[in-house]
Predict the structure.
Amino acid sequence: MDSFDFGAVIAALPILWQGMEVTLLLTVIGTAGGLFGGILLALMRMSKSRSLSVLAASYVDLLRSLPLVLLIFWFYFLVPIIVGHPVGGFYSAVVGFIMFEAAYFCEIIRSGIQGVRRSQVMAGLATGLTEVQCMRFVILPQAVRAMLPLLLLQCINLFKSTSLVYVIGLRDFLTAADLIGGRDGRLIEMYLLVAMVFFVICWAASLAVGRIARRTAS
Amino acid sequence: MRYDWDWSVLFTDPYWSWLLSGIGLTLLVSAASWVIALVLGSAIGVMRTVNNRLMRTFAACYVELFRNIPLLVQIFLFYFVLPEVLPTPMGTWLKRGMPYPEFWIAVVSLGLYTACRVAEQVKAGINAAGRGQMNAGLATGLTPVQVYRFILLPVAFRTTIPAMTSEFMNVFKNSSLALTIGVLELTARARQVSEYTYHSLEAFAAASAIYVIISFIVVTLMRQVENRAKVQGTLAAEAH
């Protein structure tokens, strides 16, 4: 191997940044949409209607037992068929990540709410709070505190998982690096750079989450 | 929405046998990676709890390094970068000398990645067993190695079975990433069927059904194991 070529990396920075924008966009939209879907699913799952609860539970179990790569392929082919015209890889991937994250967020939210002790709810109702007030002032403050670190870790996981859009050729950070590296014969520099960037971002983010977790626990 | 369903393509040759061989490779990659993950992960997990600063730091670095880089990037590093940065004879052996290079590189990178997750579970299991167990063991005259071997590790493995099961499910699902370096496991075969027949949805539905069925079998089996292996006196045993 010849020496590490910094020049090649610097020349590639603009295209790599475009890739990073796609990665960040997928992460942000996937998190926002997944959170919305996850709240909806968690409400369904904990509702008194048995059919809603079973429906949500089956959805969550199904999506959690499939590999993300397979789900990305699914939505890559399924979304254009449902919409009726080609939509491009980006929109298919966005839909796929939202559907997938919703299942994971649902489980985090549900276990956070169900982790609140029964006695707390009873005490709340005994003091004359309505069920809605009890949810708002007793359950949710405790539940959100418990689930916040897990939700944040799930965002970091999603950030790493977005690299899987490589399989449908969407130009995220990894795929952009792969294309340039292949073009210039600098794959080694590119892959090492990608690994370092992901490591620094994810490591710093997980340290921050650890700090938040300690603060909310006390 | 218009789509011509034709499920019969799944049962015609060669597509039928493609999917079957895909199942075999998925199971093989998962099982082989799991062996590496379990052995190495246990070692790293133990190192995170021992009374030796150097070993603890090394183990912590391992976990942070492998946890914070996407698995796909790790696979590429092992497949494309490692052979180039190693001395030439070793690099050439990795690329061409050894049998089934894609398979083994997928297995090793998946194993090393999962080891960092297994290590965290083992560490948590040992810590949950408590300092008291360690001190009690030492007081009865066992050496530290014996305390790990006969007390801490057996308890840790029994209490972490549910977590380990979900880690195995992760390996099983993550084995699909092997397709990026050309291992024709189940997801790759499904895509191949989709490309040859244009019946993408049937092919992916078949693969999905297979993943769900295998997950269901593994989870059911592990629930049996978990029931038998419950440690008396813990909350889990009382709940049963």
About this structure: The domain at 10-239 of chain B is CATH 1.10.3720.10 (MetI-like fold). Chain B touches chain A at residues 1-3, 64-65, 67-74, 76-77, 80-81, 84-85, 169, 173-177, 179-180, 187, 190-191, 194, 200-201, 204, 207-208, 211-212, 215-216 (CB under 8 Å). The mean pLDDT of chain B is 91. Chain B has one domain: 10-239.
